[in-house]
Amino acid sequence: MRVEVEDLVLRYGDVTALDRLSFTLEGEKIHGLLGRNGSGKTSLLSVLAAFRRQSAGTVRIGGRPVFENGAVTRDVSLIRDAGETVDLGTAEDALYFAEWLRPRWDAGYARSLMDLFGLRPKMSVKAMSKGQRSAMGVVVGLAGRAPLTMFDESYLGMDAPSRRAFYDALLADYLAHPRTIIMSTHLIQEFGPLFEDVLIIDQGRLVAHEDSETLLSRGTEVIGPAAHVEAFTTGLTVLDQRRLGPTSSAMVYGELDEAQRAKAAAAGLELGPVGMQELFIHLTGGSR
Amino acid sequence: MFDDRSPIYRQIAERIKADILSETLKGDEQVMSTTQYAAFYRINPATAAKAFQHLVDEGVLYKKRGIGMFVSPDARDALRTERRRSFFTDVVDPMVAEARTIGIPLDDVIRRIEELKA
Fold first, then answer.
1. In which domain, by residue range, is B104 found?
2. Rounded Cα–Cα distance for residues A264 and A222 (Å)
3. Alpha helices in chain A (DSSP H)
4. ipTM, 2 dp
5. Which of A33, B85, B86, B97 is most buried as measured by Cβ atoms within 10 A of its Cβ?
6. Alpha carbons B61 and B28: distance in angstroms, whole number
7. In A, residues 65-124, which contact B (CB 8 Å cutoff)?
8. Dihedral, CA of residue B104, residue B106, residue B112 and residue B118, to nearest 10
9. pLDDT digit string, tens, across residues B70-79
């Protein structure tokens, strides 16, 4: 399901959480939503899921407005960081409720996911640990097969093996049943390879929106004798610079063409890739 | 599974080329699907598809519509020719440079090569 957002503004009183966001997400892809704490990720996902009404701007999902539109919200699922929030009753009750809500619900798949995460049907949701609650949310999110499925830090409280199980289950189910998935995360190194497309927001504004490979190709680390690094990077966008004795390393943002690469090689400079996490850190203001 | 030094899709492409050179993959043999690669390497299928597209563009693989990807019959010969062309600059020159840096006389290197030849 295609997601179209135009000039989206969300205010809480006099706080602007989303500041004229505009972007389009193509359908049937896994999109990563990256941003620092308080950048507006949860606000954005809440508007896309029609949990909140925007202050201004338009949101269209599959070409239709989403707020108070039951025909659309049935196809949109948001799993929040607290996991399964319907904490009345047992896991079984939560599944029953999800099945009633989701036209594409796969009960057999839900049962196998419950086994995968070691959840039992008779468990009281209220008595679950943080990790179990997250896992419960993941079960509901995956088995619902909603054409637009969003996970907002849904693995919170899960340990590394459970996160790995979630990662593999998500990828396998996406391969078998392609749909639009948006996933917000702080665990960029862990979840980055899952994303076809990456959206970075900061202070409610869009910082970058590109397919992952393009984003990664924009970052280059330049290492070599300090004077040569300096000469080479003059006029380029330098995100970070470090010095070790006579050697300097600069993180450059913006794709380098063949001529520039040749120039770097001639100057004895080493060019290397920059990871998504590094790019993210520096595109969102370093350790501000 | 991947070192961070080069894009994943390039590493996948290199792996497939290595399999063709070693004849683990033979001419006209079908390669695993994008989906299988994505699940195995734990990556987005678009990334795996990009690796295949590169190999199709280079003539290493060819597509059969609706069936999948296959190794071009002349892929191994072409890859060998290409590697031969860059062998001296990619392999021999750095070796000589390394020998010089650490103080191994080139005559010793040549002697070693003569030994291996025998």
1. 76-117
2. 8
3. 41-48, 70-73, 91-101, 107-116, 130-143, 160-176, 188-191, 212-217, 226-233, 258-266, 276-283
4. 0.85
5. A33
6. 9
7. none
8. 180
9. 999 999 999 9
Q: Do B8 and A194 touch (CB under 8 A)?
A: no
Q: Clarify whether residues B40 and B81 are in a common domain.
A: no
Task: Check if A271 contacts B (Cβ < 8 Å).
Answer: no
Does pLDDT of A219 surpass 60?
yes
> Which residue, A149, A177, A212, sits at the end of a domain?
A212
Does A288 map to a domain? no
| Whether the Cβ atoms of residue A84 and residue A137 lie closer than 8 Å to each other | yes
Please count the structural domains in chain B. Answer: 2
Residue pLDDT, tens place only, B72-106? 999 999 999 999 999 999 999 999 999 999 999 99
Instruction: For A119-139, write each residue's pLDDT tens digit.
Output: 999 999 888 998 999 999 999
Q: Do B44 and A216 touch (CB under 8 A)?
A: no
Residue linked to tokens 């280059």? A220
Residue B40 C-alpha, separation from nearest chain A C-alpha, in angstroms: 10
Which of chain B's residues have a Cβ under 8 Å away from the Cβ of A272?
5
